[in-house]
Amino acid sequence: QSVTWNVNVPEDGLYKLNIKFRKNLYSGMLSSRMVFVNGEIPFKEAEAVSFSYEADWAISTIKDEQDNECYIRLNKGDNDITLMVTQGVQGQYVQKATTVLAELNAMYRKIIMITGSDPDKNTDYRLEKLIPDVVENMKTQADALQSIVDGITAFTGQKGSDFSSFTTLTFQMNSFNEEPELITRQLSMFKTNIGSLGTWINDAGNAPLEVDYISVSAP
Prior knowledge:
Elements: E1 2-9, E2 13-23, E3 31-37, E4 49-51, E5 54-61, E6 71-74, E7 77-86, H1 90-115, H2 127-130, H3 132-156, H4 164-178, H5 182-185, H6 187-204, E8 210-217
Antiparallel strand pairs: 1-7, 2-5, 2-6, 2-8, 3-4, 3-7
Helix pairs in contact: 1-3, 1-6, 3-4, 4-6
C-alpha cells in the first residue's frame, strides 16, 4: 500500500522532508515506510523510515544512523513523494517470532499426542521421559522470545504493553522446563498464550500510520 503526494518547489535543490504523523496503536512497535522521490528511493535511509509510538501528533524527518537530517533532491516545479508500507527493521523480529510460533505449535501437538487436549491434572505423564526434546526446547524458545523483546525495545526505546504475551509465555516456558509436571496442569493456558503470540504477529504486520500532511523546507 502506498500514498503519493505532489509537491511543487520553486527551485532545483536539496530539501528536508517533514512528515506530521500519529501512531497511537500498538505501543512498543514501529510503523515503517519506504520513501520514493519521483519514483526512486533517493538514499539508503529512505528504504525504511521508522515511526515510533506517539499518542499525539508529531513531526518526523528522515535521519541517518548518526541522527543527522537527510535531504532529498527535488526538481523545480512538480515532484511526486510516495510513502509505501514496509516492515523495515521490525520485519526480522516478526520472522523470528513466526519461527518460534511454529516451534510452539509443534511442541503442543507432541504433548497432546500423549496427554490428550484435556489431560488429567492428577496424572504424572512423565513428559520429561517421553518427550525430553520438548521439555528442553521450552528453554530454547523462551530465550528466543526474550531476545525478540530485547531487540525491538533497544531499537524503539519503548517496551509497550503489547509485549505482555511475550512476558507471560516466556515465564511459562521457563517454568515448564524447570518443572515439567506443570505442563499438564497449565496446558490450556499454554495453548491460549500461543494464540496470543499469533495475534501479536498479525498485529505487527498491520502497522497503521496516520499522516496529517507532509511539507518540504530548504536548509
